[in-house]
Amino acid sequence: MQLEFYLIENCAPTLASLKTASLFRCPCREEEDVFDVLYRWNREFSRKGLHVVLLKRFSGSALIYVYRRSQLERDLKENGAKRLLETYGYQSTDPEYALNRLAGRLTSEGEFPHEIGLFLGYPLEDVQGFIRNHGKNSLCTGCWKVYGNLCEARRCFARFEKCRDIYRRLWNEGKSIYQLTVAA
């Protein structure tokens, strides 16, 4: 599994501490490979405030969530976020509990858990707008669908893309993922 490549392509803003979290699906052959790699990354990254979690396993791939615990804790405790999570049965905003609940909702046969946007650091008004509009009628689509502050979202998308370009270049020049990860 080329986890480093996926981390650079999908998680650079999270590695740089510009974004709460990132999510990506990557191919993997054996279940043990995923857990071994995640264990190793968590051991290294935890010193910098970064955590890596397997949210869902598919046949031949895995859904990986990379996050900054302190930022996630702050994001989930915001009043509007807390209320939205409560409507989907979350009884706590504790990151470990909430991630377990999210993983359970991802693996259930029910509706996709669109509250996942809160776990990725998306603005509350955009997550609510996506849910309310069933993913339609957005003002703009970038890293997420925008229903609120269009100007701020576009600035954010540009910042994330620039970060990704810089991280991609530095990684290709030989910098390690650990060197590129900013301590929180």
Concise synopsis of the structure shown:
By secondary structure, this protein is of the alpha+beta class.
Low-confidence stretches: none
Helix/sheet category: alpha+beta
Number of helices: 9
Give the total of beta strands: 5
Spatial separation of the terminal alpha carbons: 27 Å
Q: Radius of gyration over alpha carbons?
A: 16 Å
What is the N-to-C order of secondary-structure elements (H for helix, E for strand)?
HEHEEHHHHHEEHH
Helix content range of the residues, please? 40-55%
- Main beta sheet, described? 3 strands, antiparallel
Characterize the structure shown.
This protein is an alpha+beta fold and 184 residues long. The chain has helices spanning 3-15, 31-45, 69-77, 79-87, 95-107, 116-119, 124-133, 150-172, 177-180, and strands at 21-27, 50-58, 61-68, 140-141, 145-146. A three-stranded antiparallel β-sheet has the order 1-3-2, sandwiched between helices. Strand 4 and strand 5 (145-146) form a beta hairpin. Helix 1 (3-15) packs across helix 8. The protein is globular and about 45 Å long.
